[in-house]
Amino acid sequence: MGRGGVIGTGGVGTVVGTGGAGNVVGTGGVGTVAGAGGSGAVGGTGGVSDPMVAVCEAQCSRQQRCTPQKFPTDADKAACVPTCIAKSPSASVFRDGVLTDLAACTRDLACGTSDDVCLTNAAKPLEPDWIASADSKACAATYDACKGTPIGYVDRTCGLFAIFSPSTLSAFNACLAKPCSEVAACVEVVIPL
């Protein structure tokens, strides 16, 4: 799987995280995941069963609708979804339903509106249980202990981590047990943002 993530901040074409091309979560760049539009605009597959494909279709459709100058040819349009999928993490990284919610949210998202709202909306129903969880407390404790060092996440509440699957969170927790100097590299592998 290529480097990519599904969490982040910033402009058109992001879903979550920070970074450049290839982020499903991140800021800007071809291959990010979040957006809007119907699958037909990017040569969609119809009855998509892989939720990451649906997210990439939504992202690419939104990018093509909002920044058509970045897709001057049919080949550029056709390459968007496969490029996004190749650079995105596996759908198994995420809790069931999260990617479906992200794709649905981005379908009609207005150009110029940050797609971070879609991630926030997907995480919000999960946060009450997450905040009370041992995973959330471990995340906050590591944040507090490692402040001032790069640790791979920037928010003490760790609220958006609620979107990740139990197996991803288990691996994430193993990262939190490492020395502060090793947490960021571990988190980047487990949750490629």
Helix content class: 40-55%
Counting DSSP E segments of at least 2 residues, the number of strands comes to: 0
Uncertain spans, ≥5 residues at pLDDT below 50?
1-48
Largest sheet: none
Label the structural class.
mainly alpha
The first-to-last residue Cα distance is: 13 Å
List SSEs in N-to-C order. HHHHHHHH
Cα shape: elongated
Q: Please count the helical segments.
A: 8
Share of residues in strands: under 5%
Task: Please state the CA-atom Rg, rounded to the nearest Å.
Answer: 16 Å
Give the overall pLDDT as a whole number: 74
Keywords:
mainly alpha; 193 residues; 45% helix; 8 helices; single chain; disordered N terminus
Provide a concise account of the structure shown.
The protein has 193 residues and is mainly α. Helix content is 45%, strand content 0%.
Q: What's the arrangement of secondary structure elements?
A:
Layout: H1 51-66, H2 74-87, H3 98-106, H4 116-123, H5 127-131, H6 134-146, H7 166-176, H8 180-190
Can you describe this structure?
- The protein is mainly α and 193 residues long.
- It contains eight helices and no strands.
- It has a domain at 127-190.
- The longest helix is centred in the first third of the chain and has 16 residues, at 51-66.
- The protein has helices spanning 51-66, 74-87, 98-106, 116-123, 127-131, 134-146, 166-176, 180-190.
- The two termini are 13 Å apart.
- Helix 1 crosses helix 2 (74-87) and helix 7 (166-176) runs antiparallel to helix 8 (180-190).
